[in-house]
Amino acid sequence: QVQLVESGGGLVQPGGSLRLSCAASGILFSSHGMGWFHQAPGKEREFVAAISWSGGNPYYADSVKGRFTISRDNAKKTVYLQMNSLKPDDTGVYYCNGVRGAIPIFRSWGQGTQVTVSS
């Protein structure tokens, strides 16, 4: 059974940075592309960033290009999201999942990690 545990969120001022982590278990982690998704208050969950199984070919939603960086450590079965130059619109819950393109592939989601960008 897939388990995804996100962490690293918090309260940060506009322009600040956070690094999110997602630890995966119950899957052959190194065989899957992984991605991050963002759910703003009252909105649908949206794609943020993805990375291939090998750590190459990262790609991003237009709204985060140049500000966020996705990476992974297959030995630790963990995917990261470095978030810089944060904006109030980045506020919400961040989730990870396996991906095919920008589409999540695992039915179960973790609890997410809350990011609040506010002065």
Q: Beta fraction of the residues?
A: over 45%
Shape: globular
- Count of extended strands: 11
Mean pLDDT: 96
Calculate Rg over CA atoms. 13 Å
Order of helices and strands: EEEEEEEEEEE
**Quaternary status of these chains?**
single chain
Sheet with most strands: 7 strands, mixed
What is the helical fraction, as a range of percent? under 10%
Distance between the termini: 40 Å
Total helices: the number is 0
Specify the structural class.
Answer: mainly beta
Which stretches are low in confidence, meaning pLDDT under 50 for 5 or more residues running?
none
Can you give me a brief rundown of this structure?
0% of the residues lie in helices and 50% in strands.
